[in-house]
Write a structure and sequence with these properties.
- By secondary structure, the chain is of the alpha+beta class.
- The chain has a domain of 191 residues: Aldehyde ferredoxin oxidoreductase, N-terminal domain (Aldehyde Ferredoxin Oxidoreductase,  A, domain 1).
- It has a six-stranded mixed sheet.
- Helix 12 runs parallel beside helix 14 and helix 13 packs parallel to helix 15.
- It is globular, with a radius of gyration of 22 Å.
Amino acid sequence: MFGWHGNILRIDLNRKSFHIDSLDTESGRKFLGGRGLAGNFLKDYITLSYDDPEMPVLFFTGPLVNTKSPTSGRMTIMSKSPLTGTIGDSSVGGSFGTMLKKAGFDGIIISGCSDHLCGIEIFDNKIQFVSANTLAGQTVSTLSRILKDKGAAAVIGPAAENGVLYSSIMIDGHYTAGRMGLGLNLASKNIKYITVKGTGKTRVADPVALKNASEDIFRLVSASPALMGEYGISKFGTGALYDLMNARHMMPSFNFKKSRFEHAASLNAPAFHHRFAPESTGCRGCHIRCKKMTADGRPIPEFESMSHFSALIGNSNMDTVMAANQFCNDHGMDTISAASTLACYFELTGKHPATENIIALLSDIVFQRGIGEQLGKGSARFADAFGFPEASMTVKRLDLPGYDPRGAYGMALAYSVASRGGCHLRAYPVSHEILRKPVPTDRFTFAGKARIIKLQEDINAVADSLTACKFIFFAATLEEYAKVYSAVTGMTISSQELMKIGERICYQERIMNAQNGFTAKDDDLPARFFDVSKVIDDDNPPKPINREDFLKARAAYYVVRGLDENGMPTREKAGALSLMTK
């Protein structure tokens, strides 16, 4: 095989044993790798609870990982989400995926539960189970120092050990597999860390063709202002979006009660760069290098963290934004859900962050003290318990990120139908509605958006499965990546065939969610976005979304996605996509 190794490492924690399964070529062709292959292995277990010992946790690379393909250093971690009950996956950078491929594996499937806190150490084809009892409660930074000679590391912090539903898995100390609570999946299996170091190479069918195809992508990226421009993502990281979202009245402020933040100019990415003079780094295999680090090793917050720990909670102190971001990373807790839960808490209690110690509240969440125990369950459960569920800005219990859907109707639709909940990355309509890539669309209409969202979901499923960074598709397309894939694997494929694979991956996720009881009632936005009375006046307040128009757009999405009128998969469409249904 080229691209793939054909080896899946299966780990049984009950027996502290492992064996290696073969990956057949047909599965590789149908699901590529990463998110697609992981989902195919997860499907038979998806109705189990997240903490059932038989519920697997999957780490999957793609065929492009550990090759010279552009932005190929990512991987997918997947299980059932403790926070949402949906399929739970996270595409994450760092070096773990590359090291896993160097060790000779396309993926890891972990089942069972250890009888004590343990670490799993992989060096090529040698796998060891190590007691981690002495590491209980240790932070991510401490673990990074202890494990630094063992290769790439995936670790959990105290948040996961203490049961926070939105705890994360941290890769190489700074890269977050977040949003879905996957840290708790590892904690439920008594895994504190996994390290991997490899020395092997990944075979490429046609290195010359790969070089030529990659150079085409490099040229397109170089010409992209959004990626490589003076104020682009390569220069300022994803925080480059901060000013733009505020200018477009899409900055979620005060728990989405406002769409602009008056202190935005002093908290944008240039302000952080002026203050901290960060250096650029990035995921393995990426030349865009969007991650920014201070001289003393602290990451500059990504856009979502920068936005949520400032505007969403009404905080204007830059030091607090930095401290909150660092605290969440070091304790293994998702920044978006943590900030969103605080925003919900501030709204419901009438308290303001000026009179609250934000870091102290985050600490209470991690260590489950006082109100922190309730906040650790997420904003949806907290608002339900408070008797005012409307204050939770979530879809399928996943907190909304840094884009107000009243300012971009494609985003409104994308949030509502995303298979993992209120996620901006399943379709990322910001690319065309705001950044005008690949072509501009009218952000204040649902016209044509159903088909656009469906197609973009398919593209991003391919990106997560190859694997590649979604941001590179501001410049490149699947036409370029079809050539990269063909060169690496020796299997000629077209962009249209890749799109069909993306459609298959997305449809299988809808099947898995349906098996867990998700229907059209879950494909919806918080009522706040449809209600004129919920808009706080500012310079140019957003208009509420017309609910009738939204429902028509959702119905149109169901048609183009091949679902029935209640958003449920059909046997006919599943069969057409070569998917099995019970």
